Amino acid sequence: xxxxxxxxxxxxxxxxxxxxxxxHTLFFGSVRMFFLGVLGFAVYGNEALHFSCDPDKRxxxxxxxxxxxxxxxxxxxxxxLVIVLVPGAFFHLYAACKxxxxxxxxxxxxxxxxxxxxxxxxxxxxxxxxxLQIQLFGFKVNAIYMCDMGAFEKKFNIxxxxxxxxxxxxxxxxxxxxxxxxxxxxxxxxxxxxxxRRLGFLKTQ
Length: 205
Known about the structure:
Subunit structure: A connexon is composed of a hexamer of connexins.
CATH class: Mainly Alpha
Number of domains: 1
Organism: Smutsornis africanus (Double-banded courser)
Family: Belongs to the connexin family. Beta-type (group I) subfamily.
Helix content: over 70%
Number of strands: 3
Number of helices: 8
Shape: elongated
Subcellular location: Cell membrane
Structural class: mainly alpha
Protein name: Gap junction epsilon-1 protein
Largest sheet: 3 strands, antiparallel
Strand order of the largest sheet: 1-3-2
CATH topology: de novo design (two linked rop proteins)
CATH architecture: Up-down Bundle
């Protein structure tokens, strides 16, 4: 791929054709990723080391932690961010290969429809991630986790485990839900903005 394609691709990703899209890129690329990358590591980085059960044995702690966390939140949210970026990246790669200018996206029906489809796909992916997050993590992290030890040792049945910094994790969990909702709202607003520009209610940039 030529340098011109790469330059057009990067410029398209950094500067979407709508005002709301540009704000979404700023919010998604800076605030959300910074929050996850910096604060997420601070909150969840040493969770496995401080997760302790009764009896406090390494193998018991490891077994119960794997049961408590089938997937770590940092990995889940990182996958969510990458997957949600795919539709927009695919569109901008197509636009770069076709040498489509930013103003053409809003002026030509095919390009507008293609772009709206990529935004709508982002909404669907965010909604699916929101539902999966509820299934995996719920809305609250409790201080005590009751671990089912039946598959590990028969002499243990249910054991109590202490979840470190459960209150901080609850706050972080709610924040990630909030970021997902904000992203969905911005995507819907961007679709509305494009529709208004196509119908002539707003001036096309």
